[in-house]
Design goal:
The structure is a homodimer of 561-residue chains.
Chain A: H1 2-10, E1 15-25, E2 30-39, E3 42-46, E4 52-63, E5 65-70, H2 79-86, E6 91-96, H3 99-117, E7 123-128, H4 146-153, E8 158-164, H5 167-171, H6 175-183, E9 188-191, H7 198-205, E10 211-212, H8 218-226, E11 230-234, H9 242-251, E12 257-260, H10 266-271, H11 275-284, H12 289-295, H13 298-304, E13 317-320, E14 328-333, E15 336-340, E16 343-344, E17 377-385, E18 392-400, E19 412-418, E20 427-433, E21 441-444, E22 453-457, H14 460-473, E23 476-481, E24 484-489, H15 501-517, H16 525-530, E25 540-543, E26 546-549, E27 552-554
Parallel strand pairs in A: 1-4, 5-6, 6-7, 7-8, 8-9, 10-11, 11-12, 17-20
Antiparallel strand pairs in A: 1-2, 2-3, 4-13, 13-14, 14-15, 15-16, 17-18, 19-20, 19-22, 21-22, 21-23, 23-24, 25-26, 26-27
Helix pairs in contact in A: 11-12
C-alpha cells in the first residue's frame, strides 16, 4: 500500500479520484487552486501531475469535519442512523463518549455502540466512560469500574477516558476515580468541570485531564485555556455557550479552541445540521470562516493526535459551496464519496439486531406521586430551569396545605424520578419551576446520566399515565394531554431508536408541539427535562434518591431562615 | 504521588518550592503575576493558595526551552557535558538523533549516548537513526537496519525515527527505508528533504514523515507547511536559515513552526548559547519575544505530544531577566533549580568510563594523495563552498599539467577522504574552492555522516601529516601549519570529547585561529569541512568512494562540453 501510494503521489499510478478546484488549506488558512489526489482511502497530495478520473468542483474543498465531543445517544439514534444524518452534513469523524448507554447496559451497551458504528463509513472514536454511574446519588443500570476501563482501553476504537465529571471526587482524591485516571494516563483524558476555578481547577488538571466543554463565561474559559486545557466550546441542543465564549476564541485566535456539539437532538440534527451548523454559528458570531473551520478540523486533530489533510493521511474532505454560506455539497470519507448535495450515495444497512427491554419496572399508580406534609405552610426547594443551560437554580417557594401539589399559577410543577433498572420501587418527588405546563404530564427514560424515568406534570394521574406509557413502549418519551397519550419509543436502552431520523424527529416534533399546547414555552422541554436528574451539574437536581444540592441529598423542605 | 500532587495544588500540603512573580503563559501569550508551585518534579499550578518555601523572583518565568532537533555529537561533547553547557542557558529538553555516533559504533554508540545522558538532569529524548549509513555511497563504521530500529523503538527513551535523509530512496520506494518507516508509523518520524517539492515532496510526506529542518527559502518552507509538515527552522553553527524564513513564520503567526539548532559547535554553545540564542536571534529578526518563546516551547511540545506548563506536567521552567533581553537567570528542570545566573547548582559527575579507539587505519604518506592525469588540460569538478550553508555548488575549473595539485592563486585546494573504519586503504581525492588556505592542511574525523577522515590542504605532505595526527590522537581534528601540528582529540568515536566544554572550545578556538592565519576566512572552517563528505546534501560532495553528484559517484574529470 505504501509503495502504491507513493506511486500515486508521483503520478506513476492512477489515483482513484482527482479533485480539481479550490481548496482551503488549514495549515496556512488560505484558499488556493489545484488538484488533490485520492488513492484508496488516502490522500495522495496536491499536485498537477496527479493522474486519474478527475472531478472538477465548484465551491471549496476543506478538511473533513470533526466533532471531538459528542454523546451519540442524545440524537436518540443508534450510531449508524446518527452517521446517516451527519455524513451529508460533512462530518467525517466523531469522538463519542457512550456514557448514556453505559449507565443502562454497561460494557454490553458500549460494545453495541462500537459494533453498530461499523455499519457506517463515519470515523468513530470512543472514550471509555469515566463516571458510570455519574455519582453515588442515583441508581444506574450498570457500573463501569477500573477493570472495565482497562479492558475498554485495549480496544482499538477506544482512544482514552471519557469526561471525568466527578470533579469533587478527583479533588477529594477518591481512589476509584484516581485509579481510572492512572490507567488512562498515556491516552486522552476528557474533562468536565463546570465553574471549577483556582486551586481546585489546578488540582483537577494536575491529574492529566486535558479538556473541558463546560465553560459558560469568558473568565472561566480564559482561566482554563491558561492552564493548558483544550477549550471545547459547546453548542448543543440543550447547552449553547458559543455566544458567551466567542470573544475568548477571538482573543487567543482560536489556539487550542475546539467547537463541539456534546448533545444534539434529532430535530436539530435534521434541521440545522451537525458540525456544519457549528461553523455557521461561529461565522454568525463574527468569526472568520477560515478560523471557524480550524476550530473543527486542525484544532481537534491536534487534540486527538490525528494527522489530517496532507499526503498519506485519510482522505476525509468536504466540498462546500462557499466559506461564507457553508453549505456542504460533497462529503468524502476515507476516499469515498459518501454524499452529494445532502443525499447519501452509499448504503448503510438497517439495523436488524435484537435488543432487550431495559425497563425493569412494574406499573405505577397516581398515589405513588403523592406528597404530603404535617405543616400548613411549607418552604419547599424548587428546581428552577435556566433556558438554554443544563445547570439550574435553586428557588424556595412557600406552599400551603397538607398535600403538596402542582401550582400552575406560580408554575410549580411536580417532578418525579422513578427507578427503572432494578424494580426497586424507589420514586422520588419534588418540584420544578419553568415548564409552565397547564395540564398533563411528560415522562422520559432519557434522564442523564442514570436514565431512570423522569416525569413532570400537573396531575398525579397524568404523571402515572405518562410513566406507565414508558413501560409499555419499553423506554422512550411520552406525553399525556387530556385523553391523548402520544409517545416516541426508544427501545434500545430506553435511549435510542433504530428507526430513521425522519421518523424519530417527526415523532419528537409531535411531542414538542403537544407540550407547547400544554403551555410550555421552553425551546427544548424534553432535553431540558432529561438533564434535571443529572446530579453532577449545579445547583438543584433530582435523582431517584431525592433532591440533590452540591453533591448532597437534601430534603424537599427548606428549613426556616 | 497523584494524591500528594492534588493536595499540594489545593494548598493542603507544602510545595517543595513556590515561585512568586511574573510569568509568561504560552497558551494566552500573555504575562501575568502570581505564584507557581512545584511539588517533587511536577508543577502544582498557579494559585495564591499554594504553601511552601517561596522564591520571589525578578524577571519573568517561562516554560523550559526545547530543542526538538539536535545532534549532540556536533557539540563535540558527550551528552552529560552538552547538558552542563546548555542547562545554564535554559534548555530543559532536547530531542537527539544520535546518527553520528551510530555511523561509527552502531547501536553500541546509541546506547552509550542514552546511558551517558542519564548522568544529567536534562530531559533527553532520542530518535532511532533512520539512515546509517546515510547512503551506499560511502563506508561507515556500522549500519542500523530495520531490526535495530525495532529494538531501539522499544526503549523508553526512543520516541521515533530520526531524520529520513534518503528522500530519493523513499521516492524510489526502496524496501529497506520503507520498512523502517512502517515500523515507526505510530511514532514521530522526522524528515530531512532539502529542496524537495511538488509531487516528490507529496510522495515523501505520504509515508508519514512529519517534519523538515532543511528549508532554505520561503517558497520551500511555505510549500512544506501547507502540506502539513512541522517547519523546523534551523539556526545552527553550520547552517543558518532563520533570516531567510522569518517572513514565513510571521505569515503563519508561527503555527507549526519550531526553531531548532540541529548542529551547534562548542564555541557557539559557550559564547552564544543554545535555545536561548535561537530566541534572541528570532527577536533580532523582528519576531515578538512572546511568539519566539512559543516556537521553542508550546510548538515543539505539540509536535512531541508532550504536555507542558500546567498543573501535573513536569516542572520545567526558566526565569529570564526580561523577554526582550532574554538572559536566563534560573533554570528549573523536573522541579529542581539547576542553574542560577549561568552557574550550575548541581553536580554532574565527570565521565570515567572507557572508550575504544575507533580509528582503524595505518599511517598514510604524501603519495597517497597524489593526483595525476595524461592530459595537459583537464576540466575538473570542484566543490564550491557556500558560506553559512551545508549545501555546495559544483564548479568546473581548467587545470594544467599532468599532476593535479592545489592552486592557491585560484583557491583550488586538494580535498581527500580517508576511509578509517575498516582499514581498507580507500582514499578519494578531489578539489574544493572556498577554503583559501595559503599553506598547510586541516584534517578531521568528524565528517558527516560516515565520519571517515576528511582533509583539505595545500601540500600533499601537510595533508598526510594532518591525517597521521588524527590517527595518533585516536580521532579528532588536526591542523598542520609550517612546523606546527595542533590538534583537538575527540577520542569517543572520533567525534566527541569527555572533557569540559571550556577545554574543548579553547582547543577549537586555537585551531580556528591557526586556520585563519593560514588564509582561510570561512566563519567555521572545521564544521564546513565536516559537511563536505555528506552525500545526501546537494550539489557536489566527496566520500571515500569519490565525488558524489546527485546521489551518483562521478569522476573528477568533467567531460568536454
Amino acid at each position: 500500500m505504501l509503495n502504491e501510494l507513493i506511486e500515486a503521489c508521483l503520478g506513476y499510478r492512477e489515483c482513484d479520484l482527482v479533485v480539481e478546484g479550490s481548496f482551503f488549506n488549514p495549515y496556512t488558512q488560505k484558499t488556493e487552486d489545484g488538484k488533490i489526489g485520492i488513492y484508496k482511502d488516502k490522500f495522495a497530495g496536491f499536485s498537477n501531475d496527479l493522474i486519474g478520473k478527475t472531478l472538477e468542483i465548484e465551491g471549496i474543498l476543506i478538511p473533513g469535519l470533526i466533532d471531538a465531543h459528542v454523546h451519540i445517544e442524545s440524537s436518540m439514534l443508534i450510531p449508524r442512523e446518527f452517521a446517516r444524518v451527519v455524513l451529508p452534513r460533512g462530518t467525517s469523524t466523531v469522538v463519542c463518549d457512550p456514557h448514556e448507554i453505559a449507565n443502562v447496559l454497561g460494557k454490553e451497551g458500549i460494545n453495541f455502540m462500537i459494533d453498530d458504528s461499523k455499519a457506517s463509513p463515519l470515523n468513530f472514536f470512543f472514550l471509555a466512560p469515566a463516571c458510570v454511574p455519574s455519582s453515588n446519588l442515583e441508581t444506574s443500570g450498570a457500573k463501569i469500574d477500573s477493570k472495565d476501563i482497562q479492558e475498554l482501553l485495549e480496544l482499538e476504537e477506544v482512544i482514552g477516558l471519557g469526561e471525568v465529571m466527578s470533579f469533587p471526587a478527583v479533588i477529594d482524591r477518591e481512589p476509584k476515580i484516581l485509579d481510572k485516571i492512572r490507567i488512562s494516563k498515556e491516552k486522552i483524558i476528557d474533562g468536565h468541570c463546570p465553574g471549577l476555578k483556582g486551586k481546585e481547577l489546578n488540582a483537577y488538571i494536575s491529574t492529566g485531564i486535558i479538556s473541558d466543554h463546560e465553560c459558560s463565561d469568558e473568565e472561566e474559559a480564559l482561566e482554563k485555556l491558561k492552564k493548558g486545557i483544550y477549550l471545547m466550546v459547546r453548542e448543543g441542543s440543550a447547552s449553547k455557550n458559543l455566544h458567551d465564549l466567542i470573544e475568548v476564541i477571538k482573543e487567543v485566535r482560536g489556539r487550542r479552541c475546539i467547537l463541539v456539539s456534546d448533545d444534539r437532538d434529532p430535530i436539530d440534527l435534521r434541521r440545522e445540521g451537525h458540525v456544519d451548523h457549528l461553523i455557521r454559528r461561529a461565522i454568525e458570531e463574527g468569526i472568520d470562516p477560515e478560523l471557524a473551520i480550524i476550530l473543527v478540523t486542525l484544532n481537534p486533530s491536534e487534540y486527538l493526535g490525528l494527522k489530517i489533510f496532507f499526503p498519506g493521511t485519510k482522505a476525509d474532505f468536504v466540498i462546500v459551496d462557499s466559506l461564507d454560506d457553508f453549505n456542504v455539497m460533497f462529503n468524502i470519507v476515507n476516499g469515498e464519496i459518501i454524499s452529494e448535495k445532502g443525499i447519501l450515495r452509499i448504503n448503510i444497512p438497517e439495523y436488524k439486531g435484537i435488543y432487550k427491554n431495559t425497563i425493569n419496572l412494574v406499573e405505577v399508580s397516581p398515589k405513588d406521586f403523592l406528597l404530603t406534609t404535617d405543616k400548613e405552610n411549607t418552604r419547599v426547594k424548587v428546581i428552577e430551569i435556566v433556558e438554554g443551560q443544563i445547570f439550574t437554580r435553586k428557588r424556595i417557594f412557600l406552599m400551603k396545605g397538607n398535600e403538596l401539589s402542582s401550582d400552575i399559577e406560580r408554575d410549580i410543577l411536580k417532578i418525579a424520578v422513578v427507578e427503572r433498572h432494578r424494580n426497586s420501587g424507589r420514586i422520588s418527588k419534588g418540584f420544578v419551576h419553568g415548564f409552565n405546563l397547564k395540564e398533563g404530564a411528560i415522562a422520559s427514560s432519557i434522564s442523564h446520566d442514570s436514565h431512570n424515568i423522569v416525569a413532570v406534570g400537573v396531575e398525579d394521574t397524568s404523571v402515572a399515565r405518562a410513566v406507565n406509557e414508558i413501560i409499555r413502549i419499553g423506554g422512550g418519551i411520552s406525553c399525556v394531554y387530556g385523553d391523548k397519550i402520544i409517545s416516541l419509543p426508544l427501545p434500545i436502552g430506553g435511549l435510542m431508536s433504530h428507526r430513521p431520523v425522519e421518523e424519530v424527529s417527526n415523532n419528537l416534533e409531535t411531542l414538542n408541539e403537544t407540550i407547547k399546547e400544554m403551555g410550555c414555552d421552553l425551546k427544548n422541554p424534553i432535553m431540558t427535562l432529561s438533564f434535571l436528574a443529572l446530579p453532577v451539574i449545579p445547583e438543584l437536581k433530582i435523582t431517584d434518591y431525592g433532591l440533590i444540592d452540591d453533591f448532597q441529598i437534601v430534603g424537599l423542605e427548606e428549613p426556616d431562615e
